[in-house]
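Format notes (please read before filing issues)

Several people have asked whether sequences and structure tokens are stored in separate files. They are not. Every record keeps both together, in the order shown below: the sequence lines, then the token lines. Line labels are part of the format and must not be stripped during preprocessing.
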Amino acid sequence: MTSIQLRCGYNQILLIHEGKKNLNLNESEQLAIDKTFSKLELDRHNHRLGNNYQMERLHLDKMFSFSIIYDFENNLPVFITGVQEIGRHSARVSSRYFMFPEYRTFADQHGMLSKIDDFEVLQNELKSAQPHFPFIFWSRDKGHGFFRKIKAARPDIFLDWEVYPDTIELLYQNNLQGLIYYKTGDQPADYFIESDLKYK
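Then the structure lines:
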């Protein structure tokens, strides 16, 4: 598994694939990864959650997959994102998501409902994680208002996703998060939330 050419023209470089470090990266991909992490260390300081993007706090050891979206034409990272294993049955998509500042103007111009890759990476993450996790979710510390908007605006992507009606303490005390989820297991959403996600 090497990088995936996205419709937007960027490349999705899989640093971690199905819980294992990708050993099939070529030299240009490895150089792109090195540049991404060096740049992340500089750029994270201007982010409100900057401490989460320190190398030791990326939780790479807990990631089912971790991708670097790279613009080879301009030799710049676009964003990073992961699928993090949570508990026994669940996985969080868009975990440790960080958009690099050179590409943030896209959200300003086009809004959060389209994303720079039009959610292609999220769809790739879901396809990869589905056979392994019956409960897949995306969470935000700003509640679930955004998820309600995006489910209504983008049924082409989120028709089969559900917005959880309450915020939950996700993994840590006072870490209140809203979430949208995709479920394939027979158990109700509350089963996975109580057993895997909620702070105990």
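For reference, the curators noted about this record: The beta strands are 4-5, 11-17, 20-21, 63-71, 76-86, 90-99, 135-140, 162-163, 168-169, 176-183. The first strand starts at residue 4 and ends at 5.
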